[in-house]
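User: Hey, quick favor. My workstation is busy. Could you predict this chain's structure for me?
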Amino acid sequence: MTFSSKADLIARLGPPDIDGSSVPPMRWDTARYALFAQLDDKGRLDRLSLQVPHIESDKKGFEARP
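Assistant: No problem, here it is.
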């Protein structure tokens, strides 16, 4: 799986649950974890990280996508 831009992330993972000026600017929440994406100055993926979600969610994650 290769991600190089915000559009690539959204195309593969769906719209983020949070997409704003917070750091990191993109977050996807699932029942088991949260995925964070940090973009560089040119809008390319700089950092991708997972953590136990701090917001409870029963939402199916992107891993359930075909």
